[in-house]
Design brief:
563 residues, two-stranded antiparallel ribbon, little secondary structure, elongated, disordered N terminus
Length: 563
């Protein structure tokens, strides 16, 4: 390419002016070392915008995260760096652009979902230097520990002090939830090596688990001792009132049901036709061998020979009457041994999220005949409204009655909607496909949590959602289901793909044809703005189409000139 002598002289005389024309502005102070035209290709590919691949040649931490498919930057939605990071805006300009603001950032995109108490925290409550374990790695990469969002991990103890002083596993969520630290809602003593039975179930935790003072943390000087507690013998906790006359095998006579309830340990019940197993072994003799029921010829073929049918005959059709063993064992009546696989063979197989909910969420206690309480296992219907309240308050009954709630929802997730919007008579096209449901279907009540959204009776015309930016210039009389007059047909000029008036053709749709030199006149030359109700509105009609309305010509002078 050859330059003219004049251009060469201009460049030599005014080099700073040329740089100003080529550079859009100063780089951020972190990138200031890249200033200069010779460094452009370190970030930009020739003739193209900033290259993400070039960025990652310097940003090693992010490249490693992306390669390991971890963190926000591994998300395909964020592969283009300049969508969020802007430069050439000055040395101190904030380089992170938050599309919806930092407070509305969707943290799920990072791969770590905020739940419970974490949802109410500010970003910097977690993203601060003291919670970063590998500080040296970030400092090596020139990261400010109190400004970066890198360096955290999902382990609870990376941010929280270990209340248990390494006594237990580091997986805190095995016992606790993110809603609150106390009580440990997910913990059950049945998971421990010493399972609580009988009277032990009513003993307060502090009786066995004392406080230990260690002062390792100024705000938490003591902790509860959970491990290293002896429990192999009863005398580890209880005084031997027999003074070792009967040895240390207390269980040979006693059980956790009560100290004064003595087992008939001298009688070997295994010699009978009914060996005692499980909980039966700890039942007092008088419970079964009452004055009315002596020792011989007792019925024991079915559980109901001794026990009342707690389920009140709900399972007679499924199994022979009294066949409690299908779900229960003599070891413990609760929890039930009825498996998910068995549930899949019923008339309501569990799918999706139903697999994760506890049995008691559906099978609740009800009052049977004569005010007898039992658990409901038989239902009149298996439709969703048997357990779930109609969130839509009957507004969508025409769809629900046709196919049930499954018309839109599925059991995997209530929020996962599959619905053909064209069935409403308003097919989503163009930008409408990208619009969130709540933009049109707003809650019926303001400031009320979990308020149903409005689905039926919405305007299908543009004015139902969009403001008339033409201030009524194109209103026309039309009778509609919702609007009887002053109706604007936006679709005559606009399409759903974007707001530009692509369908408008001036020589076809307007009274004034654009010919000759008029073809090169900008729209704004004829269609001026005017303040209407305090808003600047472009005037399209009425517009005076006479020449003198735009051209300042004296008719008398024109006549003399042409004469």
């Amino acid at each position: 390419m050859r330059f003219s002598p004049i251009l060469t002289i201009f460049v030599s005389l005014f080099p700073s002016l040329l740089v100003a024309q080529l550079s859009p502005g100063d780089l951020h102070e972190k990138h200031s070392h890249l200033e200069g035209m010779t460094n452009c290709t370190k970030c930009h590919e020739l003739g193209k915008k900033v290259s993400a691949n070039l960025c990652l040649q310097c940003h090693d931490l992010l490249r490693t995260q992306i390669e390991n498919r971890k963190g926000l930057h591994a998300n395909a939605e964020f592969k283009n760096c300049v969508d969020c990071h802007v430069d050439h805006q000055g040395r101190r300009f904030e380089m992170i652009f938050w599309k919806n603001g930092v407070d509305d950032f969707d943290h799920n995109l990072t791969g770590y979902q905020l739940e419970g108490k974490h949802q109410s925290l500010k970003c910097r409550d977690c993203h601060q230097g003291k919670n970063i374990r590998n500080k040296s790695l970030l400092l090596k990469n020139n990261k400010a520990l109190d400004r970066t969002y890198l360096g955290l991990n999902a382990a609870c103890l990376s941010c929280h002090f270990d209340e248990h002083r390494a006594q237990l596993k580091s997986s805190c969520l095995d016992c606790h939830t993110q809603n609150r630290w106390k009580p440990a809602e997910k913990f059950t003593h049945q998971k421990a090596r010493f399972k609580l039975t009988g009277k032990h179930s009513n003993v307060s935790c502090e009786k066995c688990h004392p406080l230990v003072r260690d002062r390792k943390n100024a705000n938490d000087v003591d902790y509860v001792k959970y491990t290293g507690i002896r429990f192999n013998q009863c005398t580890a906790c209880h005084a031997d009132v027999h003074k070792n006359k009967f040895g240390q095998d207390c269980e040979s006579c006693h059980s956790t049901l009560g100290w004064h309830r003595i087992k008939g340990n001298k009688f070997d019940h295994d010699q009978t036709r009914y060996p005692l197993r499980g909980r039966h072994a700890s039942v007092s003799c008088e419970k079964c061998h009452t004055p009315q029921r002596k020792f011989a010829n007792l019925r024991f073929q079915n559980c109901t020979d001794c026990h009342t049918d707690y389920h009140r005959g709900q399972f007679k059709a499924r199994a022979p009457a009294g066949a409690c063993e299908e779900c229960h064992t003599v070891e413990e009546f609760s929890p039930s041994g009825f498996t998910i696989q068995q549930h899949q063979e019923t008339n309501y197989p569990l799918t999706g999220s139903h697999l994760a909910i506890p049995c008691s969420a559906c099978h609740q206690k009800v009052r049977f005949r004569a005010n007898i309480v039992t658990i409901q296992f038989k239902f009149k219907t298996t439709k969703c409204d048997q357990c779930h309240e109609d969130f839509h308050k009957g507004e969508l009954n025409k769809y629900v009655l046709k196919s049930g709630c499954e018309f839109c929802h599925n059991s995997e997730s209530w929020k996962d909607i599959t619905y053909d919007h064209s069935q409403t008579g308003f097919a989503l096209e163009g930008q409408h496909k990208l619009t969130g449901c709540l933009s049109c279907h707003k809650p019926m009540k303001r400031d009320v949590g979990q308020s149903p959204m409005k689905f039926v009776g919405l305007f299908k015309e543009c004015q139902g959602c969009h403001e008339d930016i033409h201030a009524g210039q194109f209103r026309e009389e039309k009778i509609s289901a919702r609007i009887k007059k002053n109706f604007t047909r936006c679709e005559r000029c606009h399409i759903a793909e974007h707001w530009r008036a692509d369908k408008f053709i001036h020589n076809r749709d307007a009274q004034f044809r654009i010919d000759g030199e008029h073809r090169y006149v900008a729209c704004g030359e004829c269609h001026k703005k005017k303040l209407i109700s305090g808003n600047p509105i472009v005037i399209y009609k009425p517009v005076d189409s006479e020449c003198r309305a735009c051209h300042n010509q004296n008719p008398e002078k024109l006549k003399l000139k042409n004469g």
